[in-house]
Amino acid sequence: MSISKSKEHPIVGKILAELQGDDWKRVQSIASPVFTSSKMRKMCPLVRQSVEGFMNTLSEYLKNKHEVNVKDMYGCLTMDVIANCAFATKTNAFKDPNNPFVVHERNALKFSFLKFISMLLLPQFVLNILKFRTLMNEKSVDFFSTILRQILGIREKSETKYNDLIDLMMRAKEGKENINDESDRHEFHHIYEDEEEFEITRKILNIKPSNKFITEDEMIAQGLVVFIAGYETVATTLSVCSYELALNPDVQQNLYEEVMSSLDTNGEIDYEVLTKLPFLDAVIAETLRLHSPIVKVGNIAAQDYKLGNTGIIIQKGQTVEIPIYAIHHSKQNYPNPEMFIPDRFLPENRHKIIPYTYLPFTSGPRNCIGMRFALMEVKLCLAHIIRRFQFSRCPQTDVPLILIGNLWERLLTPLPDLEIKWQRKYGKIYGKTLSRSKQHPIVGKMLSELQGDDWKRVRSITTPVFTSGKMRRMYPMVRQSVEGFINAVNEYAKDKQEVNVKEMYGCLAMDVIANCAFATKINAFKDPNNPFVTNAKDGKDNSNDESNRHESHHINEDEEELEINKKILNIKKTNKFITEDEMIAQGFVVFAAGYESTAT
C-alpha cells in the first residue's frame, strides 16, 4: 500500500529525511559540518551548563520526595539543553513547566489518531481545508519556526560567536566550515567504517560551489530536526538507561567506578575523556540496542540494485524497510537478546558484533546527523548523575517494562514484537510499503523528509555542524545544563525520595537542547509549563571529522562506508546552499528528537 500527497508543508518538507536527490545532497553537505566531533567539542560547555543547572534544581526537588518520574525529569533536562544549544534560549523546564517553549515542545509530537486517519483516507482538497499538512502539531511547528526565523535574522546582523547549533549552521552555510574534519574518524562509534566508506560519503556530499546554498526554510527545517531528535528521544534513552541501571546494581557500580576514576583534579570530566570511557559507552550502546529509539527505517531505492547472490533485485522507487528493533533483538545477532549486557560492546568484544546488526542511528550517508550531539548529551548527563545519585527500584517500577498501544494488530501487539513475528514468519527480507510526503512547509524540509538533490545539498551543509570537533566546542554548554540538573537532583534526593526518571531526564534534555540549539535558558525541571517545554512535548562543519571514525557507536561503519558517505555528500560549490526554512527544519529536528530520545 502506498500513500502519497503532493502538497508539502513548506518547512516540514525540507527536513533532511524528506529531501531527495540534489536537494538532499545540497542540504546534507551544508548541515554535515555542523555535527562533526570538533563542533560538538565547542558545544559541550553549553550542554554542561544545562546539566549542572539541572542537577542543582533536582537536588532541591528531591529534598522532601523519595520518588521521581525519570521520564519527565530527563525531559526537562533535554528540553533545557536543546533550548540552550539550538535556540539560544534558557527555559528551566523543571521549574517553569508553563514556559511557552516547554509547552510547545511537549505538544510538538503529540499523536492525534483523528489527524492520522484523516491524512490516510481523505482526499487532498479536504486536507487543504482542514490544514492537515503534517502529523506534527502545526501550532508548535509554527512556534519554533518563528523563533528560529527571528534568531536567524538577529544573527545575520551580529558578529558575536555563540558556538551553538544555529551559529555553526550559519557558518557552514557561508562555507566557513570544512567538510573534512579528520578527527571524526577517530571516534569509537565508527568501528566498522573504513577509508573507502568515508571517501564515498565525502564524494556524495561534494557539490559544486554554485550549488552550495541553503534556504532559510531549509535551515529552519533542520533546526526542527534538532528539536525533535534532541528532546524526546534523548530523554527516553536516559530514562530506560536509568531503569536498567536500577535493575542491575553491579553494572551501576562498575559505571560509577569508571566515572569517578576519570575525574580530573577539578572534579570534572574532559570532553576527550568522556567520549572514550569504554564502559560508559558500552552501557549506552546496550541501552540503545535493547531499547531502540527507532523501531524501523525505510529508504527508497534510487536505482535498481541486486542483493548479492540472493537473486533479489530492489527496483528503483521501491521502499526498503529495515526492522531495527527486530535486528537488535534477534538471537542470531545477540545471545540472550532480552538481557541487559553492556559487556557486549566493550572494546575486546566488539569484533563479535556482526556488521550492520547495530543500527540505533541507522548507517550510511543518511544516518542520524545529530548522533554526536545526542551521545554527548547522554554521556555527559549520565556521568554527572551517576557521580552523585544511585538508582534503585521503587514500588512503582514495572518489571518488565511494557510499552503498549498503537493501531490495528498493534492494539494487542507492540510494533517491535510484531516486526520480530514477521521476521520469523517471512525471513529476514519481506515486503511492506507505506509512504507519504510530508506537507508542513518547515517539517518537510527536515533532513529526514528531504530527498534526492535537496537532501544531498542540505546534508552536505549540516553534516560539518555535528563533527567531533564541533561537539567539543559545544561541550561546555551541555556541561552547564548537566551541572544544573545535578544540583536539582541533589536537592530532590536528599531525603532519598523516588523519582520519575523519564520526566527528570526529559527536563535535562529540554534544558540542553534549549541551551545548545536555541541559546535559551528554560529550566524545564522547575518550570514545566514554560511554552518551550510544552511545545517540545507536543511536537515531537565538517562531515568527516577524523575523530568521528573512532566513536564506539559507529560499530558497523568501516572505511569503505565512510568513503561512500564522503562521495555522496561531495557536491559542487554552486549547489552548496541551504535555505532559511531548511535551517529551521534541521533545528526543529534536533530539538524534538534530542529531547525524547535522550530522556528515554
From TrEMBL:
Keyword Transcription found: no
Subcellular location: Endoplasmic reticulum membrane; Microsome membrane
Top-level taxonomic group: Eukaryota
InterPro entries named among the record's database cross-references: Cyt_P450, Cyt_P450_E_grp-IV, Cyt_P450_sf, Insect_CytP450_Detox
A GO CC term attached to the entry: endoplasmic reticulum membrane
CC cofactor: heme
Biased composition (Basic and acidic residues): 537-556
Residues bound to heme: C368
Main location: endoplasmic reticulum
Keywords from the named record: Endoplasmic reticulum, Heme, Iron, Membrane, Metal-binding, Microsome, Monooxygenase, Oxidoreductase
GO molecular function terms listed in the Swiss-Prot or TrEMBL record: heme binding; iron ion binding; monooxygenase activity; oxidoreductase activity, acting on paired donors, with incorporation or reduction of molecular oxygen
Stored Pfam families: p450
Residues covered by region (Disordered): 529-559
Gene3D superfamilies linked to this entry: Cytochrome P450
Membrane topology reported for the UniProt record: Peripheral membrane protein
Role of this protein: May be involved in the metabolism of insect hormones and in the breakdown of synthetic insecticides.
PANTHER family per UniProt: CYP9F3-RELATED (PTHR24292:SF54), CYTOCHROME P450 (PTHR24292)
Family (UniProt): Belongs to the cytochrome P450 family.
Protein name, per record: Cytochrome P450
Organism this protein belongs to: Medioppia subpectinata
